[in-house]
Amino acid sequence: DSVVNIGSCAFMNCTSLTSISIPDSVANIGGSVFAYCTNLTSITIPEGTSYISGWMFEGCENLQSVTIPYSATQIYNGTFWDCNNLTDVYFNGTEDAWNEIDVGSNNDPLFNATIHFQEKNPAVSGICGDNLTWTLEDGVLTISGEGGMYRYYGDDYPWYPYRNSIKSVVLENGVEGITSRAFAYCGAMENVSLPKSLHYINDAAFWCCSSLKSVTIPSNVNWVAGNAFSWCESLAQIIVDEDNENYASSNGVLFSKDMSELVRYPQGKEDTAFIIPDSVTRIGDAALEGCKNLQ
């Protein structure tokens, strides 16, 4: 279970291969990896794999069934090219989740097969900090434990493959920070619950969370990045706990505690005009970014 990657073409032309067991530790499988394995009849792609690489099963003329994980977000061009005996595809999620997968061209055998769905999406979980764990079940992403999250660099946070299924996020008390881009592109997320233990919300933490309508900053938060809520097109208000010593909210707009800095105007706020208070001496980076309703 120490293997995490299978390189491109690793089993290409292994014509005697009839079956293979891929360990759950594998998250990345290269292109053409099983191409022309003409006697391969079935395969299960492990949970956690996001991308089903291009031409992966090209020419697998006896492939009859494949199990695709709930974590899959993209099936590349030609993945099932010339798999003309493919009859059954077992998807470990619901039909709605299947319809969110981006399927490339030259995959006609996939569409000609019978797709088998689950009645509900499975619960998935993992580690997201030295002392933090995460669980996604029934659309609720819960982060538990103590301390801050690991640092992520774009789309490598562990729940990224499931982002379209996340409706709500709950950070339990003990979580101290939200790392950069932790919830970026969770477009279906409508609400988030932040704990009193939280101290910081880093850059682009909620970038493009287009369904998020409201957020409450707890009392102990001492840092909110100016672009933490950028392109949250439905965000109508940012509320701050009255006991917070670093930030304040006025009419749903985020300011520094002394009202000298405009930190963030919610992009989804419906007002067409906004008068900046006389107390403001600084307008933060991205404070008014994307506020299309303002005229």
Low-confidence blocks of residues? none
Classify the oligomer. Answer: single chain
User: How do the strands of the widest beta sheet line up side by side?
Assistant: 10-11-12-14-16
SSE series: EEEEEEEHEHEEEEEEEEEEEEEEEE
**Form type:** elongated
The total strand number stands at 24
DSSP strand content: 25-35%
Number of helices: 2
On the 0 to 100 scale, the average pLDDT is: 96
Structural class: mainly beta
Share of helix, binned: under 10%
Radius of gyration: 23 Å
Distance between the termini: 57 Å
The major pleated sheet works out as: 5 strands, mixed
Task: Write a structural description.
The chain has 2 helices and 24 strands. Helices cover 3% and strands 27% of the residues. The protein has 295 residues and is mostly beta strands.
In short:
With 295 residues, this protein is mostly beta strands. It is built from two helices and 24 strands.
Please name the defining characteristics of this protein:
295 residues; mainly beta; five-stranded mixed beta sheet; four-stranded parallel beta sheet; 2 helices; elongated
Protein topology:
Layout (H helix, E strand, L loop, with lengths): L4 E2 L21 E2 L12 E3 L6 E2 L12 E4 L5 E2 L12 E4 L3 H5 L2 E2 L4 H5 L1 E3 L7 E6 L2 E6 L2 E6 L1 E2 L19 E4 L3 E4 L12 E3 L6 E2 L12 E4 L5 E2 L12 E4 L6 E4 L2 E4 L4 E4 L17 E2 L12
